[in-house]
Structure formats: C-alpha cells, structure tokens
Amino acid sequence: MTVQNLVFQSFIWSFGCCVDSPSREKFDAYFRQLLLASSSSSDDKDFVTENPLYRNFIQKNRDYQLPMNIQLEKMYPTEGLVFDFVWKDSSWMSWHTTLASTMSSLNISPTAVFTSILIPTVDTLRHSYVFLSLIYINMCTY
Fold first, then answer.
1. What is the pTM of this model?
2. Sign of dihedral through CA atoms 69, 72, 75, 81?
3. Residue 88 lies inside a defined structural domain of this protein
4. Inter-CA distances, 97 with 27, 46, 64, 122, 125, Å
5. pLDDT for 72-83, tens place per residue?
6. How many CA atoms lie within 13 A of 104 on its CB side?
7. 42: which DSSP letter?
8. The domain containing residue 25 runs over which residues?
9. Domain for residue 141, yes or no?
C-alpha cells in the first residue's frame, strides 16, 4: 500500500503546486472529502456524485465508474494541510518536523562568509527531496 501513499503525494504535488495559499485550504478540504467519500459506504459519496462538475464529466464519459474503497496504509494526519506532509519511512511526516530536526543540527561557523550560508526552509527541504529522489533513480535533474 506504500505505492498508493506515494501516488497520492505525487497527485497533491502535481495538481496542487499551482495554487496559492487560500486555494490550498480549499484543495485540502476537497481532497480530504474525496478520500472520505471513496473509503466509506455512507452518504459521503453524494459529495462527489452530486457535484455539477462530476455530473458533466459523467455525461461525456458514461462508462466511467467512480473508484471506491480506496485504502491508504495511513491516512493523512488531521492537523495541517495535506501539503504539509511527506510520505517517508512508511508514515506521513510533517515538513516542519523535518525542518526542526535539520535546524537543530545546523552549525554555522562564526567566520562563514554571509553569501555562503544557506538556511534551510520548508521549501528548500521539499525541493531537495524531489531533487535527491530523482538522483536516486538516475533521472536527469537539469
């Protein structure tokens, strides 16, 4: 099931990368509702099937079946947005927790040239994660 969690992480980064901060909250709420609807047998499915965009899609794609019973190894934590987590070591880890552990081991020499200092941020951690993942599988990174 780890593959499913990685697919969802990729989905969020692929489709959610072009939204601003207020839209990330809307994306987060909608994505979580879709997961809930697909993994339950309750009336949550109405959230999807009654959506006008879904009905328009079904009119054009009559053979489409809504995937149900999606089971993730571990669901996203409820605190924060889905953007705030990375699937690592078989669990969802907060980028902020990862940043805190990185910052605790940060050691800047008092004689360091100002322009040579790189202070890690959540964004640099995210970019490094993608960059190193591509290097790990021997993919071109330029």
1. 0.67
2. negative
3. yes
4. 22, 36, 40, 10, 11
5. 667 788 888 988
6. 6
7. S
8. 2-136
9. no
